[in-house]
Design brief:
The protein is an alpha+beta fold and 149 residues long. 33% of the residues lie in helices and 28% in strands. It has helices at 2-19, 55-68, 119-135, and strands at 37-43, 46-51, 72-78, 82-88, 94-101, 107-112. Strand 5 (94-101) and strand 6 (107-112) form a beta hairpin. It starts with a helix and ends in a 14-residue tail after the last helix.
Length: 149
């Protein structure tokens, strides 16, 4: 009887682990296709993204988004080509953001709330960054499908 319970518990845990790969990426459920950014979940509360926007604009939008959400800035390191932030919410949960210049027009960003952080707060942060970039017209173009002639 005990062996059957252990087996069922193991199957249940494996199923949950496998289904986690089918979940939408960290910050990206429900984002429209008009946003010139691409996202990918890396698991455990993390997500990678590439933005069609200048590095400096993404860094500034990230700081403005954190301010709007009243996140405490615990760490802020901004360099010429790389920036790293650690934000803390009111419950003491962290959100890490790393932003890198890839080209003059493409910026890479990685967001992580860790295993126990709030994924929804991470999603909200990314959506607010998108809002800030849109508000200032900082995306370099709209993602509109181009039809071949």
């Amino acid at each position: 009887m005990l062996d059957k319970k252990v087996f069922l518990a193991a199957v249940f845990c494996m199923s949950l682990t496998l289904l986690g790969g089918c979940a939408p990426p960290l910050a990206l459920q429900g984002l429209g296709s008009a946003t010139p950014a691409a996202f990918s979940s890396t698991g455990s509360g993390s997500g990678d993204s590439a933005w069609l926007a200048h590095y400096d604009d993404v860094v500034q939008a990230t700081l403005e988004a954190a301010q709007v959400l009243a996140l405490e800035v615990e760490k802020k390191q901004i360099g010429e080509d790389k920036a790293a932030f650690k934000f803390i919410d009111g419950m003491g949960k962290k959100i890490d953001a790393r932003i890198e210049r890839r080209t003059d027009t493409v910026t890479y960003a990685r967001f992580s709330v860790g295993w126990f952080g709030s994924k929804t707060v991470g999603q909200l942060l990314v959506r607010q960054i998108i809002f800030e970039l849109n508000k200032e017209g900082k995306f370099l173009r709209d993602m509109v499908p181009v039809e071949a002639d």
